[in-house]
Design brief:
Blueprint: E1 2-7, H1 12-15, H2 29-45, E2 50-53, H3 57-68, E3 75-77, H4 94-100, H5 106-109, H6 111-115, H7 124-141, E4 147-152, H8 154-165, H9 169-175, E5 183-189, E6 193-201
Parallel strand pairs: 1-4, 2-3, 2-4
Antiparallel strand pairs: 1-5, 5-6
Helix pairs in contact: 2-3, 7-8, 8-9
Length: 206
């Protein structure tokens, strides 16, 4: 089984380093161009059997553009792949958030930040559990030779890739990065596990 995990295209809030969470932020023009280029690349490289995306606006828009650019599979949308819900703090800059509320900064508070729950939001641990459950459901339902494409967000990617690599969640959040429309490729199955054969790859745009 091949699983392709990609982050959505850029938004204006990405460029301004603002916390998006579940906010309905659209892709920027640059993000739309990235998504189209991603779709062209995926269509030329893989035969995608199933296409799943987070149901938030920026991932929906990315998925539609990827499909229009040549990926034949029709996207379906699953809340399991949403970004972390940052509640009342959505819209703040990351700098303002972590300076004012260091309890949410993994680099400052370590494991305590994993458990911290924003007002009307969810903890990092809750987000990870949601994503891992979604991944387990997806691979359990898939034939062994299927290629599945998932369009999601940075937070879910850090959670899942860190889990697959067996590294501490704090380390995966503090030390990993994912570019907009970066491609990650997994190969394997639920029984034997998955190998990461491509990670945070945007070289197709060069």
């Amino acid at each position: 089984m091949t699983v392709l995990l990609v982050r959505h295209g850029e938004t204006a809030w990405n460029a301004a380093r603002r916390v998006q969470g579940w906010a309905p932020v659209p892709l920027s023009e640059r993000g739309r161009e990235q998504a189209t280029r991603l779709g062209e690349h995926l269509a030329a490289t893989y035969d995608v059997d199933r296409f799943v995306a987070s149901d938030l606006r920026r991932t929906r828009e990315t998925a539609v553009l990827v499909h229009e650019a040549g990926v034949d599979a029709e996207p379906t949308f699953d809340r399991a792949w949403r970004e972390r819900d940052f509640g009342v703090y959505q819209g703040l800059s990351y700098e303002a958030l972590f300076e004012t509320y260091p309890e949410f900064a993994v680099t400052e508070s370590g494991r305590r930040a994993l458990e911290a729950v924003p007002e009307r939001g969810e903890s990092l641990l809750d987000c990870r559990e949601r994503v891992l459950d979604g991944f387990d459901r997806l691979v359990a339902d898939a034939p062994g030779d299927e290629t599945v494409l998932i369009v999601t967000h940075g937070g879910p990617l850090y959670a899942l890739l860190g889990h697959l690599k067996g590294i501490d969640y704090v380390t995966s959040i503090a030390g990993e990065s994912q570019g907009n429309c970066a491609v990650n490729e997994l190969r394997g199955d639920q029984e034997k596990g998955f190998e990461i054969v491509r990670e945070n790859d945007t070289s197709y745009r060069e």
